[in-house]
Amino acid sequence: MSTTLLTNLMQLAIEQTKADRAMICDTKLAVLGSVKLDQAEILSEHLTDVVQKAITTGQPVITNNAVRDAANAPHTKTNFDNLRGVVVIPVAGVGALYLDRPLKQGIIAKGTVDRLLKVAELAAKEGQPEATTARLDELYKQVSV
Q1: pTM across the whole model
Q2: What is the pLDDT of residue 144?
Q3: According to DSSP H, which parts of the chain are helical?
Q4: Which of 78, 85, 96, 99 could bridge across to 107 with cysteines, CB 3.0–4.6 Å?
């Protein structure tokens, strides 16, 4: 697989999830592309931790950008203007796709995450390292979870 596949998966994922920020990286966490994420955010401990977890486990991660440990969650009603829903989708043997969007827009549905994961798996099985966005979109429409 290639950077092209990850880039095209990122485009499909942004379209399907309405995420406003995204990043793709290889299995060693080298950034291959990003949308609206600055260098400090890309290098943040939280982002690298969730991406590494997805790559290591091979499972998607759905979380937020504020509370890493539920034991540390606030106990009072707090205004979370900057709270974002975060999703990381691993692409086996290649890397991962990171997405986030403001939580006030709602979370990214697990069904959507599962479909995107399945598309990545199918593209890999078909041996389509250069899969076009049109082909990935076609796979996305065919996949059910």
Answers
A1: 0.87
A2: 82
A3: 3-17, 39-42, 45-57, 110-125, 133-142
A4: 85
